[in-house]
Amino acid sequence: MKIHDLQLALDEVFRLATENPRGRANADFGTLNEYTLGLGRYSGVSPWERHRNGDELLYVVDGGVQITLLSEAGAEERELIRTGRLVVVPQDRWHQLDASTGASILFASPPESGAERTGDDPRHRK
Prior knowledge:
By secondary structure, this protein is mainly β.
């Protein structure tokens, strides 16, 4: 058993993110089954990503983040996720986070081997 101090980790990622020019930092909590557990502090817009091997859980610990999900047909679904709210991103759905005002997110992500990321809108890729 390993116990994590979420407040201590939150303070640390916040400190590290302020030192990072990209405004981002992560704390790794290990794995649950094959999922990576962690806490991230983010500012700005993430690359587009999808996970071919499972759903992704995102819990906003503080701040707010706008998540954009793309349907299989390419239609956008946008939602503002604020402190205390949780979202499950379905497997194989392209998504992008916009944390313009900054956000700390507790996450459970499927193995990295199934992740795909791009800086370009995936609807315009060939």
